[in-house]
Fold these 2 entries.
Entry 1:
Amino acid sequence: MTLNELKLQQKAVIAALNHQDIALASRIMALGLVPGETIELMNIAPMGCPLQVKVGDTLISVRKSDASLIALQTAS
């Protein structure tokens, strides 16, 4: 499952960043979206992009195209 497939208010754990562009992966990780962190989809913009996610106590907006690069494991 990837971040763009998560349902509203659903939680998951970031498993990996699937992107070959090291600069983009670094920017995503600098926002706190790192493997092992729990993430929750809080809101989706009316046109479907961006997605608002919560990591820890921080709310972050992520483009849908970038969200498709973040692999998740469902939280138990």
Entry 2:
Amino acid sequence: MNKTLYKPLSWVVGALGGILAGQVFKQVWSRVAGEDDAPDATDRDYTWRQVVIAAAVQGAIFGAVKAATERAGAVGYRKATGDWPGDD
């Protein structure tokens, strides 16, 4: 299999990872804050601290899910093709 096939696969895996990360963050935020939605930076009803903490938690979750899905995609690609996508 050609390594150029990995690029579209990584886009699909990345999109699915983004969806998953959004769902995970929504669940975590709901349990921790007791609210359905995290504050936006321009929401005047929240303090700086609340907005920044929400953004930090969201970023951490998105980063972890992105790394996990990209790694799973690379491992799956290697199992299917015998090649590691990052090798030249």
